[in-house]
Amino acid sequence: MNNSSTNQPSALELIQQTRLQVEPLMAQITNHRFLDALAAKQVPLAALQTLAAQQYHIVTSGIRNIALLVSRYGHLPSRTILNDFLQAELVVRERIPAFAEAVGLFREQLPQTPRLAKAMMFSYFISSVCLLGCDADLILAFRFDSEVWIQNSLRVYRALRSQYGLTAEQAEFFKIYQNYQEADERVSPYIQAALERGESAAQMQETARLLLEYELSFWDAMAEVAQV
């Protein structure tokens, strides 16, 4: 099935259309009040422990979720980028304990820490995408979510170093994500292949929007815990 028969946009057109739709949402995320409070050293230590705990749960769940999608689409070329997502999750997860311990939470405590529903909705939505969605749903959504997450993570990294006295190693979890930036040119062939086999452009676009809404929900949850 090709684009001409379904009147679907090309991959690059879809990426451009999606960016126009989600740019206001992305701006809300990258200008979040939690980041401003962190830069002003207004976030208490207990809230930083919660940040570490929620990221532990989100990344741990992400490993399982993406592994499922790799399994579902292992017969297609998209397995390459999906496996890259998976390997990135495995790498960043190893950096969480150093951050957790720097803010007073032992690594042995991480699996038992309570999950916050408002923070974990991001993870639960990815679970549904990896179980029921297609490969390109996640690929397009990660194209935009990774962009805002990297921007926010670097702001967190700088604040932890300058305001909270963490070492580069202790805060590395938030810096390492810059190694996993995605580009339109990299993701577009996989999205194009999905469009050509009849996957829905509208569903891909909606998935990207929803994931960003859940990303915003995560930062809202962190701000509420910090009472900022």
Describe the protein's architecture and organization.
Helix content is 74%, strand content 0%. The protein has 228 residues and is mainly alpha-helical. The protein has a single domain, classed as Heme Oxygenase, Chain A. The radius of gyration is 18 Å and the shape is globular. It starts with a helix and ends with a helix.
Précis, in short:
The chain has helices at 3-6, 11-30, 33-39, 45-72, 79-93, 96-102, 117-132, 135-162, 172-175, 184-196, 201-226.
Mean pLDDT: 96
What series of H and E elements makes up the topology?
HHHHHHHHHHH
Number-wise, the strands total: 0
Number of domains: 1
Low-confidence parts: 1-5
CA-based shape: globular
Oligomeric grouping of the chains: single chain
Structure classification = mainly alpha
| Gyration radius, rounded | 18 Å
Topology:
Layout: H1 3-6, H2 11-30, H3 33-39, H4 45-72, H5 79-93, H6 96-102, H7 117-132, H8 135-162, H9 172-175, H10 184-196, H11 201-226
Helix pairs in contact: 2-8, 2-11, 4-5, 4-6, 4-7, 7-11, 8-10, 8-11
List keywords for this structure.
mainly alpha, Heme Oxygenase, Chain A, 11 helices
